[in-house]
Write a structure and sequence with these properties.
The protein is of the alpha+beta class. Among the domains are: about 110 residues, Uridine Diphospho-n-acetylenolpyruvylglucosamine Reductase, domain 3 (2-Layer Sandwich); about 170 residues, FAD-linked oxidases, C-terminal domain (Vanillyl-alcohol Oxidase, Chain A, domain 3, 3-Layer(aba) Sandwich), CATH 3.40.462.10. It has an 8-stranded antiparallel sheet with strand order 14-11-13-12-16-17-15-18, sandwiched between helices. The longest helix is centred in the first third of the chain and has 13 residues. The structure holds flavin-adenine dinucleotide (FAD).
Length: about 425
């Protein structure tokens, strides 16, 4: 029996449409000039896209793929920016968006891996709960966020997806069993941020808080030092803000809101009772531009955080090509000139706030991979932690993932090429974890 007919017998949707295959075979790695060159569209293309609609169908598809030695690359919304959903060995791209159930169960939300975080958040809020963390790509899937994401709105209080965000997960292994298993607690580690190489997440249970009222607060400043003077105080509020993003004038006009392009911008998602304190602190160094006590307005701020300002700048100024480095550490506040000096040409900082200090997307002109890597060493030398978004290797819990995959994917068919002994461009630190 051919692979296609075996899959069709399972009742899953199977497509070999070339346009669709091209689309699902690449992700947002196009944000990286290194990955643009290494993973151009059309170089690595799946043979089939399979769209299951139930957990058991996922397990059944994996059993067929195991029997026929066919690689399977799980995929959510394809917003990952490390090329980590690229099907290097062809085979099946498993589009999980059909698994989209969402249920609030007391203090947690149980969601099908393909449920969008917009929906998860909407359902949680309607039930009086706040999802701990979601990325600036709120249209991405919860399975993709757990499988490939890391931080976002909520990170100041709750850190990363590896810090208790996931309560349990139902996993489909690639071991020929056609079965599912559930993991929780410490057992979850090898399944979080490991790009599906240890198993396909079919359902995840994530943590929530009682819903709070959130407000979007915009401030503006005449200098980076003034912006930082406020940014660095925001972890001391009585309720941690959900987000605190800052941008230089070079990035401000590219943001999809009307802000003074000559001033440094601060955007805070603040809990309602702390708004007066936030605005008072902003006024000591700059101006309060706007306060919107409306949840939908806070989503606008989320959509201008993390990698998004880099993307907006790349769109506004496609040449010369720009790259970014994910970074963290107090030199971003204390010595921005030393940070900028790590790369030639104009270097821009998009600031975020973590629990114990600042993070930033450092944006510079691309002059080649060797130059980019050399700058990472210079950043480390001045005490900045770096993570490279220019490589597709599993770089969190690598040894544990390898050990787990020996059991859950003995033939190495899950998302091939992403799990190696030692990632060549080693990540050193995970974004959201400040040293
Ligand atoms: C402009 C921009 C902004 C971004 N902002 C953020 C941000 O704020 N925070 C952040 O953490 N990330 C961010 N990202 C990265 C990305 O959006 C997140 O990783 C996202 O949550 C991925 O979800 P997805 O559904 O698109 O997953 P995909 O891109 O489809 O997949 C991501 C990885 O997970 C694997 N995977 C997908 N589904 C599953 C599953 N069910 N089981 C196992 N493995 C699976 C894939 O194989 C792939 O390796 C950003 C990216 C861009 C382009």
């Amino acid at each position: 029996m051919t692979l296609e007919s075996e899959l069709a017998d399972l009742g899953v949707d199977v497509s070999t449409d070339r346009e669709l295959l091209l689309k699902v075979s690449s992700d947002w790695s196009r944000m990286s000039p290194v990955l643009q060159d290494k993973l151009p569209p059309g170089r690595y293309v799946a043979d089939l896209v399979v769209r299951p609609t139930s957990a058991q169908q996922v397990a059944d598809v994996l059993a067929v793929a195991y029997r026929q030695d066919v690689p399977v690359t799980p995929r959510g919304a394809g917003t990952g920016n490390y090329g980590q959903a690229t099907p290097f060995d062809g085979g099946i791209v498993l589009d999980l968006r059909g698994l989209d159930t969402v249920e609030v169960t007391g203090e947690t939300v149980r969601a099908g891996a393909g449920a969008k975080l917009t929906t998860v958040d909407e359902v949680a809020r309607a039930a009086g709960r706040d999802v701990w963390i979601f990325p600036s790509t709120k249209g991405s899937t919860v399975g993709g966020f757990v499988g490939g994401g890391s931080a976002g709105t909520g990170t100041i209080e709750h850190r990363t997806t590896s810090d208790g965000f996931v309560v349990s997960a139902v996993v489909a292994p690639m071991d020929g069993s056609g079965s599912l298993f559930t993991v929780s607690g410490a057992e979850l580690e090898p399944f979080v941020h490991t790009y599906g190489v240890t198993g396909v997440l079919v359902e995840v249970e994530i943590r929530t808080d009682p819903a709070r009222e959130w407000a979007a607060v915009y401030g503006s400043f005449g200098s980076y030092a003034d912006l930082v003077a406020v940014h660095r105080t925001l972890t001391t509020l009585s309720v941690a803000p959900r987000l605190a993003s800052g941008d230089e004038p070079a990035l401000v006009p590219t943001l999809p809101v009307d802000l003074d392009p000559a001033r440094w911008s601060l955007r805070v998602i603040a809990e309602a009772s702390t708004v007066d304190e936030v605005t008072a602190r902003i006024r000591t160094h700059g101006e309060v531009v706007r306060v919107a006590r409306d949840y939908a307005e806070t989503d606008v701020l989320s959509g201008m955080s993390y990698n998004h300002p880099v993307y907006f700048l790349q769109q506004a100024a496609p040449q010369p090509r720009l790259f970014h480095i994910e970074s963290s550490g107090t030199p971003l506040w204390d010595d921005p000139d030393a940070v900028r000096a790590c790369y030639p040409g104009p270097v821009h900082l998009h600031l975020e706030l973590f629990q114990h200090g600042p993070g930033a997307m450092i944006v510079a002109e691309y002059t080649g991979e060797a130059d980019l890597l050399a700058g990472m060493d210079r950043l480390e030398a001045i005490g900045v932690g770096v993570h490279s978004p220019h490589q597709w290797y599993v770089d969190r819990n690598v040894e544990l993932a390898r050990e787990t995959a020996r059991r859950t994917d003995p033939k190495g068919l899950l998302n091939p090429g992403k799990l190696v002994d030692a990632p060549p461009v080693d990540s050193r630190v995970n974004i959201g974890v400040v040293r």
